[in-house]
Amino acid sequence: MNKDIATPVRTKEILEKYGFSFKKSLGQNFLIDTNILNRIVDHAGLTDETAAIEIGPGIGALTEQLARRSKKVVAFEIDQRLLPILEDTLSPYQNVKIIHKDILKADVHEMISQELAEFKDIMVVANLPYYVTTPIIMKLLEEKLPIRGIVGMLQKEVADRIAARPGTKEYGSLSIAIQYYTKAETVMVVPKTVFMPQPNVDSAVIRLTLREEPAVKVKDESFFFQVTRASFAQRRKTILNNLTSQLPDGKQKKEEIVSALKEAGIEESRRGETLSLEEFGLLSDALYPVFR
Ligand code: SAM
Asked: Which strands form 50-55's sheet, in the order they lie side by side?
C-alpha cells in the first residue's frame, strides 16, 4: 500500500515540496492523523459499490482513504494551488476525480448525472471548511440530491446545534432545518491536535442520514422554515411574542395567531426552544391560511 498522506511528516514534505502556504480564509486545516481519518470513513458505511463526494480535498488526506474504501470519489476543491499537488499525491488512485470549483456554485445534480449515474449508493464525506459549513450542508440538503447521507467534520459548537434536541440551549432553527431532512447525530469529538495548522475551535464529526420523507409533512416547506426562524428570533421571548413581532403584519394578526396556537395545541407562553418538529409542523399548518 502507498504511504499515507495524512501523517505529520508526509504532510510537511508535501507542503515544502510545493511551497504551499495555508489560506485561513479558505478554512484550510488539514488532517494529519490516519487513525482519525479511518474512523471518520468508518462512520460513512462505505462499500465497494459506494461513490463518495468530497468537499475540499486539500492535499488529499481524506480523499486517499475514500479512494481505498469506495468505488469512486469525486472531490470539489476551490483552491487552484492544490490541483497540481492533488495530481501528484493521488496519482496511485485511478478512481478519483477532482473538480476545481466552489461547491456553493457547483451544479451537483449535473455532476452526479455525468460522473455517478450508475451508483445507487452515494455518500458525502468531508472535513468541511469551517467558514461555510452551514451553507454547504444546507445546499446539499435543499437541492435534494440522490445521496444516502453526509459525514462531515465541523466546529463542535455547530455540530451541537445541528444535533440538538428540544429543550436544550443549542436547539434552534438550524437544528430544525437539518433534522427536517435528516437524522442527525454527533459521532465523534475530535481534538485540535490532529490538524495542521491547529484550528482555534474544537471539532466534531456529524452523520446526517437522509430521511425518505421529511420529518414532518407540512403544507408549505418555506413557510414552515419561516415560522421556525421567527420563533427563535429572540430566544427569551414567548412563541406568541416572536410570531407577532416577526411574521409580516404579525401585530395586526395577533388574534389569528393566538387561535392558530390554540388549534396546534401549543400554549402561547411557551418558548420556541421547547417545541418539537411535529409541533412546529402543526403550528405552521395552522398559521398558513393566515399568512399565505
Ligand atoms: N480534506 C482535507 C483534509 O481533511 O485534510 C482538507 C480539509 S480543509 C478543512 C477544507 C478544504 O476545503 C480546503 O482544501 C479548502 O481549500 C477547501 N475549500 C474551502 N472552501 C471551499 C469551497 N467553497 N468549495 C470547495 N472547496 C473549498
From this structure: 96-100, 72-77, 50-55, 121-127, 149-155, 203-210, 182-190
